[in-house]
Design a protein that fits this description.
The chain is of the alpha/beta class and 374 residues long. The chain folds into 2 domains: 237 residues, Rossmann fold (3-Layer(aba) Sandwich), CATH 3.40.50.1100; 118 residues, 3-Layer(aba) Sandwich (Rossmann fold), CATH 3.40.50. It has a 7-stranded mixed β-sheet with strand order 1-10-9-8-11-3-2, sandwiched between helices. The protein has a 4-stranded parallel β-sheet with strand order 6-5-4-7. Helix 5 runs parallel beside helix 6, helix 8 packs across helix 9 and helix 12 crosses helix 13. The relative contact order is 0.19. The site of pyridoxal-5'-phosphate has 21 residues, from helix 5 and helix 9. Pyridoxal-5'-phosphate (PLP) binds next to helix 5 and helix 9.
């Protein structure tokens, strides 16, 4: 495992970054539990970093789930099913109508590999639509995350190896009755993961609304944690065009596939399996469709040790925010590299706490909290 490092991005070309989409937001607004998530001030984190302010978008409760991932999973599932059934993307078919059509048709199941949150969200969508779900997970996934997927009614298959092995297995399962809804892409499989990124537009749009309404300061620094890069691509689409905002991509030292790819000048697979405590970020290969936006949209990439994620969790919890290991990783990147990034009192930082306590036992151990499963 390497030491934490900071890599200025030699590939930066902000004009090349794509744009957010609006259609997914209209779709999410039509979903039963949709409402914008809050943005919280983190004064202790700001004092610790020595910056003017830190704000965190709080994704610990998003449409009844403990992470932002349902935004991508729901839009990608919807779009995949429309395409499968031969409907136009702008058909305006609602979820209830879709469910009725699926009930009358041949048996169909949703398949996805996951390091936790995405698969759980796909399983939730399958339940909403009356479909079955087959979710593949790496062998080291903690019991609580596996159980949370099973509770959604999904069949969970534990794949020997890491996240990349689970992805390979999911791709093998694609057939006429098995629709793969993955949040990462590979050669020949790009549409559903591109809809995942589009789905995240909703969250970024909510943040931009708050900034443009003057409810939170215009950020000078946005830190985004990176697994396969779909989330970071959405952040880039929202912020690359805003001058005066620096984008910092953050990865675990043990799962630094994007940083390694940027250093190599092209997509690179790192040796696996990845075992960082930031389970959602344990990926060995960047998504081919996230790569263009991430490699051109970020100013700097940094890597962080597991201990930094834990420190960030404690700091955020002190400010009243429940943020899991992967959720706190953006702040962890800034904590680990404050000096090298040159952060100062004129900076206004935005982080996105992408999950709540998805491993409650570990959250309690790290923060001293006494949360119980809801
Ligand atoms: C909580 C959380 N944050 C961030 C990420 C990173 O997203 P991506 O894999 O699109 O880079 C994930 C991915 O699973 C996640 O679960």
């Amino acid at each position: 495992m390497s030491e934490p490092r900071l890599v200025p991005n030699p590939l930066v070309a902000k004009g090349a970054v794509g744009s957010l989409v609006g259609e997914s937001r209209a779709f999410h607004r039509s979903m039963p539990d949709y409402r914008p998530t809050p943005v919280a001030a983190l004064p202790a984190a700001a004092a610790r970093l020595g910056v003017g302010s830190v704000y965190a978008k709080d994704e610990s409760r998003r449409m009844g789930m403990p992470s932002f991932k349902i935004l991508g999973a729901s839009w990608a599932t919807y779009r995949s099913l429309l395409a499968h059934l031969g409907h136009r993307a702008d058909s305006g078919i609602g979820l209830a109508e879709l469910r009725a059509e699926l009930a009358a048709g041949p048996d169909l199941r949703l398949v996805s590999a996951t390091d936790g949150n995405h698969g759980r969200a796909v399983a939730r969508m399958a339940g909403l639509l009356g479909l079955s779900a087959h979710i593949l997970v790496p062998e080291d996934m903690v019991r609580e995350r596996i159980d949370a997927i099973a509770v959604e009614g999904a069949e969970v298959e534990i794949v020997s190896g890491g996240y990349d092995d689970a992805i390979r297995r999911s791709a093998e399962l694609a057939d006429a009755r098995s629709l793969v809804v993955s949040d990462t892409s590979w050669e020949g499989y790009v549409e559903p993961p591109s809809w995942v990124i589009d789905g995240y537009s909703t969250m970024i749009g909510e943040i931009l609304d708050e900034i443009d309404a003057g409810n939170i300061p215009r950020p000078t620094v946005v830190a985004a944690q990176i697994g396969v890069g779909a989330f970071a691509a959405a952040v880039a689409r929202g912020f690359a065009g805003r001058t005066g905002t620096r984008l910092v991509g953050v990865e675990p030292t043990d799962a630094d596939c994007m940083t390694a790819s940027v250093e190599a000048g092209g997509i690179t697979t790192i040796p696996g399996p990845q075992r960082s405590n930031m389970a959602g970020l344990n990926c060995g290969t960047p998504s081919v469709i996230a790569w263009p936006d991430v490699s051109s949209g970020y100013d700097t990439f940094v890597t962080v040790a597991d201990s930094a994620a834990e420190e960030a969790m404690r700091l955020m919890f002190g400010d009243g925010l429940v943020s899991g290991e992967s959720g706190a990783a953006g702040l962890a990147g800034l904590l680990s590299h404050t000096g090298a990034l040159g952060l100062g009192p004129d900076d206004h930082v935005l982080v996105i706490s992408t999950e709540g306590a998805t491993d409650i036992a570990n959250f309690n151990r790290v923060t001293g909290a006494a949360l119980v499963a809801e």
